[in-house]
Design goal:
The complex is a heterodimer of chains A (255) and B (122). Chain A is mainly beta and 255 residues long. Helices cover 9% and strands 55% of the residues of chain A. Chain A is built from three helices and 15 strands. Chain B folds into two domains: 2-76; 81-122. Classes of the chains: A mainly beta (255), B mainly alpha (122). Chain B: Keywords: Coiled coil, Membrane, Transmembrane, Transmembrane helix.
């Protein structure tokens, strides 16, 4: 469970001062499918499928963009360790500003639910967490550019990466398990990556460094160096081991 | 040497069987190959020293079977996510609940804005 939490946290350590920037990268019916693999004695073993999907949601008064990330173990693993996780954020479609975040995880019987309600007027986040007992609510102070995992994950794709200086650390903060976590992003340069769905693509190589992650510049996110900034490959190195997420399917891209 | 090779072959064969049963993919080939090599070595020394060869042949056979079974796994065990209607329903229900939450957020915003307007007009 902790391994997966660290991985999710790593995936989300990718935001910056793009919170008020208009959305130029995320489409309304985008679907990205990944294969999550874990390194066992030098061989990558496929464990789960991770899907990132966006859809429009209407409340009658306003439209929101639902950013949904789910993780499900392949059926061959279900008898041993079944994972069914859903992470959602409901954001403003024009600038990706989050209003609601929900997390519902079931990892081998370990269940946890979380809900953050953002109040921009009061500058607070009402954070509710539920494990086995009754839900527990805390009101947190909203820091500048401190958002949930899903929102931050999409915010990076909306950043002006092309303007970022190479080899310079950028501090970011993310709210996970109702605690703010600090990490540093570093653009290492560009690299060409071969993908199953998109062919050979020039990508931004971004390192994510944090205390909970292992090593320096060992956790890498490759984003296509185009207007969509699709994460095509994510390499992670956590205390429990190493692995990667590889893009296997992409549809509904904005540009 | 024969005893050492037999012990290595036994451990590797045991691990190989476990990994072939569990969904470890082609990684199970490794202990299979180790069992095969150690089994062959044990067979060689058994024959040379005129000792019983049954165990070494057994581990050698297990090694071959494990390597073939694990190596061919990718052809008959696919990486697929099972259709989970309960999970799909949960996702849909979560969306419905979220819409209700968003409506509450909207009305709360309106109330606050209304209060602000009243204060301003006073």
């Amino acid at each position: 469970m902790r391994k997966l939490s660290i991985l999710v946290l790593f995936l989300s350590f990718i935001t910056a001062n793009a919170q008020n920037k208009s959305n130029t990268s995320i489409g309304e019916n985008e679907k990205l499918v990944y294969t999550a693999s874990y390194n066992m004695s030098g061989l990558l073993t496929n464990l789960a499928q991770v899907t990132m999907q966006t859809t429009r949601v209407n409340t009658g008064k306003s439209n929101y963009l639902r950013l949904k990330c789910n993780a499900a173990t392949y059926s061959k693993w279900d008898s041993f360790f079944k994972i069914r996780d859903v992470y959602e954020a409901y954001v403003n479609p024009s600038n990706l500003k989050p209003y609601l975040y929900k997390r519902d995880i079931n990892e081998g019987g370990y269940i946890k639910k979380e809900k953050y309600v953002y109040s921009y007027k009061k500058k607070t986040i009402k954070a509710t967490m539920q494990k086995k007992k009754e839900p527990n609510t805390k009101t947190l102070k909203m820091g500048s550019n401190t958002y949930d995992v899903v929102s931050t994950l999409y915010h990076i794709r909306n950043m002006d990466i092309e303007k970022a200086p190479v080899d310079t650390n950028q501090k970011i903060t993310i709210l996970f398990d109702r605690k703010p976590q600090t990490a540093y992003l570093k653009l290492l340069g560009k690299e060409t990556i071969n993908t199953k769905t998109m062919g050979s693509k020039e990508c931004y190589k971004i390192a994510v460094n944090n205390n909970t992650l292992k090593g320096t510049n060992k956790n890498i996110v490759y984003l296509t160096a185009d207007a969509n900034k699709v994460p095509v490959l994510i390499k992670f190195s956590i205390p429990a081991g190493t692995g990667q997420l590889t893009l296997t399917q992409a549809s509904g891209l904005k540009n | 040497m024969r005893i050492i090779l037999l012990s290595v072959a036994a451990i590797a064969a045991f691990l190989g069987i476990i990994m072939a049963i569990l969904p470890f993919g082609t990684i199970g080939v490794l202990p299979g190959v180790v069992a095969l090599i150690a089994g062959f070595g044990a067979y060689y020394f058994s024959k040379k020293n005129d000792k019983p060869q049954k165990l070494s042949i057994l581990f050698l056979t297990i090694g071959v079977l494990v390597a073939v079974a694990s190596g061919s796994k990718s052809f008959w065990v696919k990486d697929e996510v099972a259709v989970d209607t309960e999970f799909q329903q949960k996702e849909e229900q979560s969306k419905e609940e979220a819409i209700e939450d968003l409506k509450e957020i909207e009305s709360e915003l309106e109330e606050i804005e209304g209060d602000l307007e009243e204060i301003e007009s006073e």
